[in-house]
Every structure is written in C-alpha cells, then in structure tokens.
Amino acid sequence: EPEVTQTPSHQVTQMGQEVILRCVPISNHLYFYWYRQILGQKVEFLVSFYNNEISEKSEIFDDQFSVERPDGSNFTLKIRSTKLEDSAMYFCASRRGQLETQYFGPGTRLLVL
Amino acid sequence: DQQVKQNSPSLSVQEGRISILNCDYTNSMFDYFLWYKKYPAEGPTFLISISSIKDKNEDGRFTVFLNKSAKHLSLHIVPSQPGDSAVYFCAASLTSGTYKYIFGTGTRLKVLA
After folding, report:
1. Tens digits of per-residue pLDDT, A13-36?
2. Which of A42, A46, A91, A98 is most worth mutating to test chain B (most B CB atoms within 10 A of its CB)?
3. Category of B60 on φ-ψ map: left (φ > 0), alpha (ψ -120 to 50) or beta
4. Which residues in chain B have their CB less than 8 angstroms from residue A98's CB?
C-alpha cells in the first residue's frame, strides 16, 4: 500500500541553524501539508500546498519557514534559523483530491539545542 | 485556539468491552470529521470519517456518531482489543478551501487484557 515517507526520522540541530525536512507524498496525490506536534500538545496545521504554491499557512508559519516541491516527488519544509521552540514532531500529509482523506507520514522529530 | 476539544486525556477499558471516545467542537461551519489513531513515534493513521450530512458511520468495530446540534462526535470501538491501545485524535475540517484539519488534543486509550 502506498505511503507517505519522511526523512530524516530524527534531526538534532543547534539554534540558529537551517534545517530541511523532506517528505515523499503518495505519488498520485496533489495536495500537500505540513503539521507539527510539540511534545504533549495537539497536532497543529502549518501549511498547505497545491499546484506549486502555498494555498494556506498558519500563524506559526512565519518568514523563517518555507516549503518547496523541487521535483515531482519531494516536498520539503525548510526552517531558516531554528529556535528552541521549533523542537517538535513534524508530519507531512498528502491527499489525492477534493474530499479525499489526508494520509500522514511517520514524522521527523526535530530537536533544537 | 480550542476549536476542537477532547476533554478526556486518557481512558482505560477492559478487553472485549466498548470504548467510547468523545470530541466537541465549537465551529459550526465544520462539515467533515475524522478520527485518527497514533502510536508513539509514528504518524497519525486514518480510522474513520463522517460528513455533516450523516449522523453515523460504521466500519467494522469502529462507529463514529455525530450530533450536530450539540457539536459533538464520538468514536465507539467494540469489542476493544489490546492492539487498540494508542492515542486517538479527532479532527475537523471544512470541505471548502484548503481542507486543513484542526485536531483535538487526543485521548490515550489503554485496553487492558
């Protein structure tokens, strides 16, 4: 069964460093999302992406964040200058079309020291 | 932002009995609701969904009930099995726009053998 994959599974970085989290959505999916979950808190929407552009972003998704679909398969989340409070699990999700369910990847655990 | 709430952080149930997980929402515009299951260090896994035009949807051992007037949904698992032990998140969405999900805080279900 096709699934969303994410790399790396864990990332440790120093505050102020740039990180890129990678996702490979399910191949025939057209809508892509990033969510995050700070330890002990709920899963929060960050950004949605469709047709090579951001369709919606949350208040969390400030100028330090960017997303890209550099080729036909990868979907990346970049944090330009990480802060301690960026430490969280980051989940990528994708869906095929309108009213279709989102399928989530296993997540990347980011720890900013 | 407390648009979706799960007021019970944890629930313990004996194997074979019914598990009932509850979720309340405040935004009457939500028209699509989902339940996801999450194991530690994994991404959320889709379980079951319901559209606001229905009040019940069933899939095997899982049934979701929607009470629009009370802005309340519940997930029933019967019979409960030890493998059902996980964190359960409800999510709500609008079927217009970007279709982002708003998640509750989760309920940790423990099914005792």
Report:
1. 999 999 999 999 999 899 999 999
2. A42
3. left
4. 95, 99
